[in-house]
Amino acid sequence: MKALEVHHATKRFGGLVAVNDVSLTVNQGEIFSVIGPNGAGKTTFFNLLTGIYTPDEGKILLFGKDVTGFSPDRIAKEGVGRTFQNIRLFGAMTVLENILVGMHVHIRVPYFHAVFRTPLARREEKRAEEEAKQLLEYVGLLHRKDELAKNLPYGEQRKLEIARALALKPRLLLLDEPAAGMNPKETEELQAFIQKLREELGITIVLIEHDMRLVMRISDRIAVLEYGSKIAEGTPEEIRRNPRVIEAYLGKGAAGGVA
Ligand SMILES: Nc1ncnc2c1ncn2[C@@H]1O[C@H](COP(=O)(O)OP(=O)(O)OP(=O)(O)O)[C@@H](O)[C@H]1O
User: Fold this and answer.
1) Which CATH class is domain 1-79+170-259?
2) How many CA atoms lie within 13 A of 113 on its CB side?
3) pLDDT along the chain (259 residues), means of 10
4) Between the CA of residue 144 and those of 31, 135, 158, 167, 251, what are the distances in Å?
5) What keywords would UniProt list here (predicted)?
6) Which protein residue's CA is at the shortest distance from atom 14 of ligand 1?
7) C-alpha of residue 37 to centroid of ligand 1, in Å
8) Test site for ligand 1: of 16, 45, 212, most ligand atoms within 8 A of the Cβ
């Protein structure tokens, strides 16, 4: 079974075709990158996968199930976690609270218990807090749990965002420009972290990324979008040498430049 199958997905905004007849499949356990120039349709493509938009044409399957037209909530329940291009943390909440917010769909307390804070509700809160702490420990942020999210260094904010997505126990994680704004050391740590998620948790990862060093090092396969269409797909080696990709995106110096 594939983690993700996209069949001929198209999304239009008025006369603009933001995603144009894109098909691709992502295997379970793969790290798959989507690259392309600004405005190529990458974020719109993610928005189709997460139910923010419904494709005008085409189908989307997650782990063999047709989820075309599902709401973002239902897609999340199918095991898809996501981070955004612009960090979307609750800056005025603590690190721990940010994780707890991410977990809310997994906390199942009947309304009555939640409102009257019965022992059941308190037990459930305690359990959620323990789980959140374990998650923070796993990503190396437990020592920051009581700090406000906005006070974390940039690289750690990105990590916290990923941790919050992990709170939903995703099988598929979509990362929109996770290395944006990171320095080389932070990017290297991010690479190791993403690989760890795949290896230890078995999560399939799809990322949009402009940092070609990271993309070429981390990806099993890469798809390239231009003007909404997929113009290439292959291993980093194949993509690096593809004349059309070099022309559209990587530039002439790229073949040797992104080792
Ligand atoms: N909600 C919208 N309404 C109208 N046009 C949109 C909308 N969202 C995106 N677009 C247009 O669709 C095209 C694809 O945009 P998208 O943001 O998906 O590209 P991108 O590859 O993610 O770009 P970047 O790398 O700059 O983030 C662009 O021309 C954009 O202006």
Assistant:
1) alpha beta
2) 12
3) 96 97 97 95 96 97 97 94 84 91 66 70 83 93 96 90 92 95 91 95 96 96 97 96 88 51
4) 28, 12, 14, 17, 41
5) ATP-binding, Nucleotide-binding, Transport
6) 41
7) 11
8) 16
Query: Domain spans of the chain?
Result: 1-79+170-259, 91-165
Ligand 1 centroid – CA 174 distance (Å): 17
Say if CB 239 and CB 33 are below 8 A apart. Answer: no
Residue nearest to atom 24 of ligand 1 (CA): 38
Atom number in ligand 1 closest to CA 85: 27
- The strand pair at 16-27 and 2-13 is best described as antiparallel
Which of 43, 47, 212 to mutate for ligand 1's pocket (most ligand atoms within 8 Å of CB)?
A: 43
Q: Which atom of ligand 1 is nearest to the CA of 46?
A: 18
Ligand 1 contacts (CB < 6 A) are 13, 16, 18, 36, 38-44
pTM value is 0.89
Closest atom of ligand 1 to CA, residue 225? 21
